[in-house]
Amino acid sequence: MNKNLLISFWLVVLMAVSWTAFSSYTPVSALNVADGTVNTILAAVKAASTAPAATDPALVVGLSPNSSQPQPLSVSTTDFSSTITTGGTAQVATAANTSRKSWCVQNPSTATELLYVRLNGTASATTGTELTPGSQVCSVANLIDTSAISVFAATTGHAFKGSYVQ
After folding, report:
1. Where are the domains of the chain?
2. Residues 157 and 89 sit within 8 Å (Cβ to Cβ)
3. What is the pLDDT of residues 113-122, one digit of tens each?
4. Domain 77-165 carries which CATH code?
5. CA-CA distance, 50 to 135, in Å (whole number)?
6. What pTM was computed for the model?
7. How far apart (Å, rounded) are the C-alpha atoms in residues 3 and 96?
8. Spatial separation of the C-alpha atoms in residues 126 and 132, rounded to whole Å
9. What would the DSSP string read from start to end of 42-62?
10. Cα torsion angle, 9, 11, 16, 17, sign
């Protein structure tokens, strides 16, 4: 028998076997988790509506692509950037606000002096957070502080940037 003919014959047989195996495939309605050994199912993945049982090793899925997704929060940002009205005297940069979720105050990079920022008290050259030109201070994540924010700088007209989210 011709060598090329024999190779062609085996290719046709291989394709027929592959097609038969593929065409007999039926989709499954559940996903199983296995460790790679033959016929060993460690757990099945089940819908979130499935009640858990102590003896059931199933993985219960609580979120799927079909689940309703959380919606983004609706927030607004308020800019309270300003300037020091009287150098050497603290001023309230923004009043207490029970709706405030986070805030930031920045000493602009163009500043030529320090800016002091204090929460729930009066800022001064000895109290509060000292900001060098170009630096900023922001509220801590997951800590909501709604008290007034005080700022202090030595020079009248010293600009500062600030904003908060509510």
Report:
1. 3-61, 77-165
2. no
3. 999 999 999 9
4. 2.60.120.770
5. 52
6. 0.58
7. 90
8. 14
9. EEEEEETTSPP-TT--PEEE-
10. positive
